[in-house]
Amino acid sequence: MLQECKERISALNSQIEEEKNKQRQLRLDFEEQLEDLMGQHKDLWKFHRPEQMAREIGTLDSSKEQLLKEEKLVEAKLEDVKHRLCSQFGADGCSTIAEGLFLRSQEAAAAVHLFEEENRKAQELLEAASHHHEQLQQKCQQLQQKRQRLKEELEKLGMQIPARAQSKQEEGAGPGEPVSPGIRPRAAHQARPCALLGKDSPCPGAYSMNFKK
């Protein structure tokens, strides 16, 4: 029993030591991170101090002035070389040199870029116009086909209408009475009562005609 208690106490002591070591390591890591952050903050604070900012601005200004001086010297040297070449090769050589310098300049690159942009836009407009033209051609072809179908249907109807009119005239004339193509069915119906009255009997239409005269 006493041995068990000793073993438990030793196990608990070892666990306590492990926890202490873990806590000590975590505290050390935290202190290192804190020191690192404080160092970064200190560097930023030093950099953003008014004195440091003024020194940085002065350094940048001096660098800018130095670059401008170097650029002016390079331009002067280029002009000198250009004059020498012009004096050596004449006016034609000078113009050729000027063209070569222009083609290598930023203005030439910008002009080429603008030309490429305009060319691309023109190609897009041409493709759109071509597509629209194809659509119009398809619509025109469809309209022509529709017109041809309507024309054929009208021609068929024109052939059927006279045949129907002739059949109606034959039905109105009655059996055994031929109807000429020029006589309408209504006239044929009006002529039938006169035929029934006889040749000598006057037709009612005759009285009406004489009355009108």
TrEMBL record:
Claim: Cell cycle is one of the keywords in the record: yes
GO biological process: cell division; synaptonemal complex assembly
Record bears the keyword Magnesium: no
InterPro entries membership: SYCE1
GO CC terms in record: synaptonemal complex
Cell compartments where the protein resides: Chromosome; Nucleus
Coiled coil: 2-36, 119-160
Ranges for region Disordered: 162-213
Function: Major component of the transverse central element of synaptonemal complexes (SCS), formed between homologous chromosomes during meiotic prophase. Requires SYCP1 in order to be incorporated into the central element. May have a role in the synaptonemal complex assembly, stabilization and recombination.
Family: Belongs to the SYCE family.
Protein name: Synaptonemal complex central element protein 1
